[in-house]
Design a protein that fits this description.
mainly alpha; 60% helix; 47 residues; 3 helices; 0% strand; single chain
Length: 47
């Protein structure tokens, strides 16, 4: 099973983006990106 937080971090780093860069691109706070990457909360499914 894929660890979504690790995958988010991996892809973000491949693009040389900071958590802030990614957060701005997907319109969430940097804190949320950090929580996703640490496995604190899972990303929600868009409806």
């Amino acid at each position: 099973m894929i660890d979504i937080g690790k995958k988010i971090a991996e892809l973000r780093k491949e693009k040389n983006w900071s958590q802030t860069d990614l957060a701005k691109a997907v319109d969430v706070s940097r804190d949320i990106i950090g929580k996703y990457e640490r496995g604190g909360i899972p990303p929600s499914n868009p409806s």
